[in-house]
TrEMBL record:
Gene name tied to this protein: ftsH
Assigned keywords, A-Z: ATP-binding, Cell cycle, Cell division, Chloroplast, Hydrolase, Membrane, Metal-binding, Metalloprotease, Nucleotide-binding, Plastid, Protease, Thylakoid, Transmembrane, Transmembrane helix, Zinc
Family: Belongs to the AAA ATPase family.
Subcellular location: Membrane; Plastid, Chloroplast thylakoid membrane
NCBIfam families named in the record: FtsH_fam (TIGR01241)
UniProt source species: Dichotomaria marginata
Catalytic site: E435
One Pfam family named in its UniProt record: FtsH_ext
PROSITE patterns named in the record: AAA (PS00674)
This protein's record includes keyword Transit peptide: no
A GO CC annotation given for this chain: chloroplast thylakoid membrane
InterPro entries per the UniProt record, alphabetical: AAA+_ATPase (IPR003593), AAA_lid_3 (IPR041569), ATPase_AAA_core (IPR003959), ATPase_AAA_CS (IPR003960), FtsH (IPR005936), P-loop_NTPase (IPR027417), Pept_M41_FtsH_extracell (IPR011546), Peptidase_M41 (IPR000642)
Protein's membrane topology: Multi-pass membrane protein
Reported function: Acts as a processive, ATP-dependent zinc metallopeptidase.
Protein name: ATP-dependent zinc metalloprotease FtsH
Length: 629
């Protein structure tokens, strides 16, 4: 890994400080240290005076302002040889000099070398110079607009990724299943490339386009395609990057972003997850976040304020448009709102073809069949589906993806990982009757979705599963279809009651009952499909902000609430009675199907229809659907 000189300097500073103090305090020799290394032995002051009286002292060199002496002495105790001896002299001994002169001793005084002043000066300047150098390094890095980590002085700078020529590797041909949204953005790209054809008739370039839709539907992918097609400067940033813990930083980053955008106009600014900064102001108990509101106010001003933002197209994406501030959504800021919804059958087919280009798929695989089996899948779900199938193919050491891997991947994406089949015969038979109950009711009802397969292999939390596949995408659902779905969901509990009795029913139908209650209540309160009349008594979405509407009155009276409960109960009760009748009338075929299911663990829809048709008239599927009183 290659390190920059700044990183090396940062890591070296502690070692430089340690070496400096060692050098100053321990490695710098003084004059006394030099002379003390010359002297081989020491002598006390009293012994020195005795040598002086005996005339054995030949020479005295004084150091450290007279506190230390190196004497040359000669005496029998020294083997009659001249030796240098170190003597520590007292602080106040004026008579010693007089005594040495009387004895005619050679005296020499050595003044101390004043190196401490130099080192004190260096020590005093070392840390200020180091501090100033560190600040200069920080300011130099703060001027870098790349938005990298560690830039302590660049809080107010925008962290947007800027590309003069965006090379995202994505164009409109790589985006499928959202044809309406593509048309909107192709028009924007054309406006950027050929503005004269629009301005000639007085058209103005849109200031903003808001992409709204569930997660995984391709909003960010569309933005990448626009960047790849437009060939204009492109800024991309997330809404969360505007918000900081420091007051005013978010607004400063918005100003800096639009300042750079104006310098490079015409250009595109893409803000992903704009709900992080654009949510409604003054919402919830105690108001909103003041820093976020300041950031939003600055964003509103930059998009369509006094100066305007001529030549800047703002594209934003969110899956929570219901919480955005109304001032942000108005024309002039976001002139267009493009809904990117879950793809229909044709959309899923196009998406699967795009993601299948770089995968080895067997010739017997039908992409149309996969598209029909995946209603409600988003583009990200479909991409994940093919990737899971490819991983499973590689795990099995196959050369190409087959329908077996795709079927397993669909089951895994929808219901979870495959579990271990049950070995307890009693529990296995009970689950088999439960799943066959769903399947028989779904098959015999005309308005119910056809059965794709029934299996006893556990997946996720489910011990067994019955898969239904709609014939087409149902954006509108009739009353008969809802009734059929309620009856199909009750099929499992009804089979348990008929076969094992009321005392042996299990908790396996808990999720089914939740769906039944929800569908029946929506028929009464939202769709006007009950005796109460064509009234919408409840909103589809609750308010996302705590405290909003806590003091508001109920949407209906207590008397209506009682009627709602009675109508929901009546719908479920009637459907339950009809389902019990279906199970009783077809008990023989149900027992036969249970035996087959236990033996093979899985029955596909084609085999199921064939077996049922041997016992009853499948074409006459609506004889059990009766009108509710």
């Amino acid at each position: 890994m290659k390190l920059s000189w700044k990183t090396i300097l940062l890591w070296s500073l502690p070692f430089i400080v340690i070496i400096f103090f060692l050098w100053q305090g321990f490695l710098t020799p003084t004059a006394t240290d030099i002379e003390s290394n010359i002297a081989n032995s020491r002598m006390t002051y009293g012994r020195f005076l005795e040598y002086l009286d005996m005339g054995w002292i030949k020479r005295v060199d004084m150091y450290d302002n007279g506190h230390t002496a190196i004497v040359e002495a000669l005496g029998p105790e020294l083997g009659n040889r001249v030796q240098k001896i170190r003597v520590e002299l007292p602080a106040n001994a004026p008579e010693l000099i007089t005594k040495l002169r009387k004895a005619q001793i050679d005296i020499d005084a050595h003044p101390p070398k004043n190196n401490s002043a130099i080192w004190n000066l260096i020590g005093s300047l070392f840390f200020p110079i180091l501090f100033i150098g560190g600040l200069a390094l920080l300011f130099r890095r703060s001027n870098n607009t790349s938005g990298g980590p560690g830039q302590a002085m660049s809080f107010g700078k925008s962290k947007a990724l800027f590309q003069m020529e965006a090379k995202t590797g994505v164009v409109f041909d790589d985006v499928a299943g959202v044809d309406e949204a593509k048309e909107e953005f192709q028009e924007v790209v054309t406006f950027l490339k050929e503005p004269d054809s629009f301005t000639a008739v007085g058209a103005k370039i849109p200031k903003g386009v808001l992409l709204v839709g569930p997660p995984g539907t391709g909003k960010t992918l569309l933005a990448k395609a626009i960047a790849g097609e437009a060939n204009v400067p492109f800024f991309s940033i997330s809404g969360s990057e505007f918000v900081e813990m420091f007051v005013g930083v978010g607004a400063s980053r918005v100003r800096d972003l639009f300042k750079k955008a104006k310098e490079n106009a015409p250009c595109i600014v893409f803000i992903d997850e704009i709900d992080a900064v654009g949510r409604q102001r003054g919402t919830g108990i105690g108001g909103g976040n003041d820093e976020r509101e300041q950031t939003l106010n600055q964003l509103l001003t930059e998009m369509d304020g006094f100066e305007g933002n001529t030549g800047i197209i703002v594209i934003a994406a969110t899956n929570r448009a219901d919480i955005l501030d109304s001032a942000l959504l108005r024309p002039g800021r976001f002139d267009r709102q493009v809904t990117v919804d879950v793809p229909d059958l044709n959309g899923r087919l196009s998406i699967l073809k795009v993601h299948a280009k770089n995968k080895k798929i067997s010739d017997d695989v039908s992409i149309t069949t996969i598209a029909r089996r995946t209603p409600g899948f988003s583009g990200a779900d479909l991409a994940n589906l093919l990737n899971e199938a490819a991983i499973l193919t590689a795990r099995k050491h196959k050369n190409a993806i087959t329908m077996s891997e795709l079927d397993t991947s669909i089951d895994r994406v929808v219901a979870g990982m495959e579990g271990t089949p049950l070995v307890n015969s009693k529990s296995q038979r009970l689950i088999a009757y439960h799943e066959i109950g769903h399947a028989i009711v779904g098959t015999l009802l005309k308005d119910h979705d056809p059965v794709q397969k029934v299996t006893l292999i556990p997946r996720g939390q489910a011990k067994g599963l019955t898969w239904f596949v709609p014939n087409d995408d149902q954006s509108l659902i009739s009353r008969a279809q809802i009734i059929a779905r309620i009856m199909g969901a009750l099929g499992g509990r009804a089979a348990e009651e008929i076969v094992f009795g009321n005392t042996e029913v299990t908790t396996g139908a808990s999720n089914d009952l939740q769906q039944v209650t929800s569908m029946a209540r929506q028929m009464v309160t939202r769709f006007g499909m009950s005796d109460i009349g064509p009234l919408s008594l409840e909103n589809e979405n609750s308010n996302p902000f705590l405290g909003r509407g806590m003091n508001s009155n109920s949407e209906y009276s207590d008397e209506i609430a009682i009627k709602i409960d009675k109508q929901v109960q009546a719908i479920v009760k009637k459907c339950h009675q009809d389902v019990l009748q279906i199970i009783e009338d077809n008990r023989v075929v149900i027992d036969h199907l249970v035996d087959i299911l236990i033996e093979h663990e899985t029955i596909d829809g084609h085999m199921l229809n064939k077996i049922i048709s041997d016992y009853t008239e499948v074409p006459n599927k609506n004889k059990y659907v009766k009108q509710l009183a």
